[in-house]
Specification:
The complex is a heterodimer of chains A (341) and B (340).
Chain A: E1 2-6, H1 7-18, E2 22-29, E3 40-46, E4 70-77, E5 80-83, E6 91-96, H2 97-112, H3 119-125, E7 128-133, H4 144-147, E8 158-163, E9 166-170, H5 174-182, E10 186-188, H6 219-224, H7 230-233, E11 241-247, E12 254-261, E13 271-272, E14 276-277, H8 282-301, H9 311-315, H10 322-340
Parallel strand pairs in A: 2-6, 6-7, 7-8
Antiparallel strand pairs in A: 1-9, 1-10, 2-3, 4-5, 4-12, 8-9, 11-12, 13-14
Chain B: H1 7-12, E1 15-17, E2 23-28, H2 37-49, E3 56-57, E4 63-69, H3 73-86, E5 107-108, H4 122-133, E6 142-145, E7 159-164, E8 168-169, H5 179-187, E9 192-195, E10 198-201, H6 211-215, E11 221-222, E12 228-233, E13 246-252, H7 254-271, H8 283-290, H9 292-299, E14 310-311
Parallel strand pairs in B: 5-6, 6-7
Antiparallel strand pairs in B: 1-2, 2-4, 3-4, 7-12, 8-11, 9-10, 12-13, 13-14
Helix pairs in contact in B: 2-3
The chains are: A alpha+beta (341), B alpha+beta (340).
The complex binds iron/sulfur cluster (3 copies).
Chain lengths: 341, 340
């Protein structure tokens, strides 16, 4: 079941949903990119459907609602603690198929990894419903097909494909379908668009020999990578954070604990008491990141962490391609296997 | 053939007097240092047909075609027509070449069109100013550069314009990685500090270079929508007192900058020494005569600076006064007398 709608009708449906839900979606921020006159597409709350950027892939990922870049978790004073309030109205999050698959990874890390759920993640996660943005074409850096994330069959309340001012929406959730009917949409059978081919092909190696740790392929990245952390900040599946305990200076006994985004690529990530640092070189950090995304996580869960959205390749200021590194690792692993025979 | 050439007219028409008797060089004006390929091809054609097959690239981003026979002036001017039109340079007489050469080509670094650090469209602004002030015989040098790096060396000009952005901070996007702090210190002036996990900017120290915006990985820092400019005044090279231009305004907007520059011509009409050699005088020496107050009165005429704009009321220039002393500060011996 689904609907075909004009731009105005789609806008009307979103207005109706907006009475109940806040809409968190990719938005084009004019001139807010790194350079003068360059836009950035990142997530934000929108008040009108026309603000939603449906034609390009966002530079930053949807995870910023569940995992804000900076979030005060609680306030403390002497022996009392109070959790920070959040806006408890429900939220619909617009995302693409690769990102839908990323939700499962985030949930695993915050809800299933260890004996306790992360309460602060849970309270935000419970507010969220997802809207699938169909992909009419693959973007330059996408490799979702080889990562098996190009198709999404469920988990969304409705989908949206936009082409020349016409909107196609699949509406599996009857509670949401109502808004489309009311807005005057025409009933139709809609299957969300998805790509079946990318320009970029990757081969994820089944097994990676231990010798990869000392392979010289990482040395190149010690020289090229500038450890800015962009690749991880934009990644829909990177989940690392760090804590800031802040004491209000006038008093010194009152303060707040903040959770802020962390990155295995940025200085300080592996610093330990006494001044030690486990992974000093950028090549070592790259190795850790890559193997976590395409091997170590799978060893525990059965599926890869990387979903192939390609944002890391899109955003790297040094033109480092993560997808090419996957292929280099596959080559190195293949050679190793060949040597054994 | 005996030559009877009005050299003053020749120079005004943007031809240089060559040391080779009977020859000249054509000076091609490219406002903002920009040239389209058709014009560039025409420069080549002129150099091949009328010159010696060589072209000089000038310090002020133009071309100079040497080795032209003084008998060919009219033909060369006709050939220049395409360039003058393509470069949108004001002209007085069709096929008459460049109508003036006193006010020099307006220089611009690549700016935001190409350079990651560029805070505004330097070329566009340079061309807009050229349109507003050219042709004019007064000797005025103006240059535009995209950021505080000053790659265009605007501090050697009468009017130097440097782009500024006012960094906007969204603390909710800041993860406290301190890359902005590090790069502001390493590549700029060190105006940032981390306090309780968030960044504080010393607004007085900040030069508006935008380095923090470029290095912030989260878009916590972004640029102001408005372009701002620093204007520096009356720098120069030369024999008597070479010196760098000094700050006059910061955080000025586009209109303020444009008006101030255009205003200088009335001042020059009034106070230029008509008896100056080749009617050419650096503005700074005129200001020495009239006093800065008088200069200020003219350049600020009908200017209402934007509210953010900060203006310096008094300016002191440095540089060496060769008319007073040609001594080196420390040198007490001649190289040839140095002990073995
Ligand atoms: S790979 Fe690129 S984006 Fe990632 S930390 Fe290195 S330089 Fe930054
Ligand atoms: S604009 Fe430049 S000087 Fe100002 S805070 Fe940013 S990096 Fe520092
Ligand atoms: S670079 Fe950006 S995220 Fe990092 S401390 Fe500065 S403002 Fe915050």
């Amino acid at each position: 079941m689904g609907y075909l709608l004009s731009k105005d009708q789609f806008g009307e449906a979103m207005r109706q949903l907006g009475n109940t839900y806040r809409i968190f979606a990719p938005v084009r921020k004019k001139g807010e990119g790194r350079f003068k006159g360059v836009d950035v597409v990142r997530y934000d709350f929108v008040s009108d459907a026309s603000e939603i950027e449906l034609t390009v892939e966002s530079d930053y990922a949807f995870k910023e609602f569940m995992l804000p870049l900076s979030e005060t978790l609680f306030f403390f004073t002497e022996n009392q603690v109070k959790e920070a309030d959040i806006d408890e109205r429900p939220v619909i999050v617009f995302l693409r198929s690769c990102d839908m698959h990323a939700v499962k990874r985030l949930d695993h890390m915050y809800l299933e990894n260890g004996s306790e759920e992360d309460w602060f993640y849970r309270r935000r996660r419970d507010l969220v419903k997802f809207v699938l943005i169909g992909c009419s074409k693959s973007f330059d850096d996408c490799f979702c097909v080889d990562m098996g994330t190009n198709r999404t069959e469920d988990g969304y309340v409705f989908s949206v494909d936009e082409s020349e001012g016409m909107f196609r929406c699949d509406t599996p959730d009857p509670a949401f379908a109502e808004a489309f009917a009311k807005a005057g949409g025409t009933e139709a059978d809609v299957e969300p668009w998805c790509v079946t081919e990318n320009q970029k092909a990757v081969t994820v190696p089944e097994d990676i020999p231990l010798s990869i740790y000392s392979d010289e392929l990482w040395d190149e990245y010690t020289k090229r990578c500038v450890n800015c952390g962009r690749c991880t900040i934009v990644c829909p599946t990177c989940t690392c954070y760090t804590m800031q305990d802040v004491f209000y200076t006038d008093n010194g006994k009152v303060g707040e604990r903040r959770r802020v985004g962390g990155s295995c690529m940025i200085d300080g990530y592996t610093d330990v008491a006494g001044g030690g640092q486990y992974r000093k070189t950028n090549g070592e950090r790259m190795r850790f990141k890559v193997l976590h995304k395409i091997h170590d996580f799978r060893a525990r869960t059965g599926y890869d962490m990387c979903v192939g959205c390609g944002r890391c390749d899109m955003v790297c200021p040094e033109y480092i391609s993560f997808s090419n590194i996957i292929n280099k690792v596959a080559d190195a692993a293949g050679k190793e296997a060949g040597d054994d025979k | 053939m005996t030559l009877d050439i009005n050299v003053k007219k020749l120079k005004k028409n943007a031809f240089r007097q060559s040391k080779v008797r009977g020859e000249t060089a054509s000076r091609v004006r490219c406002p903002g240092g920009e040239i389209d390929v058709d014009s560039l091809q025409r420069v080549v054609d002129i150099a091949r047909k009328y010159g010696k097959g060589m072209v000089n690239i000038t310090n002020r981003q133009g071309f100079e075609i040497p080795g032209i026979d003084l008998a060919d002036l009219e033909e060369v001017n006709k050939a220049l027509q395409l360039i003058i039109e393509n470069r949108n340079v004001n002209q007085e007489e069709y096929n008459g070449g460049y109508p003036a050469s006193g006010t020099r080509n307006v220089v611009a670094c690549p700016g935001k069109q190409l350079c990651p650090f560029g805070c505004y469209d330097t070329k566009k602004f340079a061309q807009e100013i050229d349109k507003a002030i050219f042709p004019n015989d007064h000797h005025v040098k103006i240059a535009f550069t995209g950021c505080s790096n000053d790659c265009a060396h605007v501090r050697l000009n009468d009017f130097g314009i440097l782009g500024q952005t006012e960094p906007q901070y969204d603390k909710d996007r800041c993860i406290g990685c301190e890359q902005c702090v590090k790069y502001c210190k390493k590549r700029s002036v060190g105006a940032l500090e981390i306090v309780n996990g968030k960044i504080e900017r010393d607004t007085n120290k900040c030069v508006g270079c935008g380095v923090c915006v470029i290095y912030c990985p989260t878009r916590a820092w972004t640029r102001s929508e408005e372009d701002y400019f620093r204007m520096v005044l009356l720098g120069r090279t030369g024999k008597k007192n070479p010196r760098l231009a000094e700050d006059f305004m910061k955080w000025a907007d586009h209109d303020t900058i444009k008006k101030v520059i255009c205003n200088v011509y009335a001042y020059l009409d009034e106070y230029m020494d008509r008896a100056a050699v080749e009617s050419k005088e650096h503005i700074g020496y005129i200001v020495d005569r009239t006093g800065f107050e008088e200069f200020l009165k003219y350049i600020m005429k009908d200017v209402t600076p934007n509210p953010e704009c900060e203006i310096q009321g008094r300016i002191y220039w440095g540089g060496k006064r060769y008319d007073q002393s040609n001594e080196l500060r420390q040198s007490m011996f001649r190289f040839s007398e140095r002990e073995e």
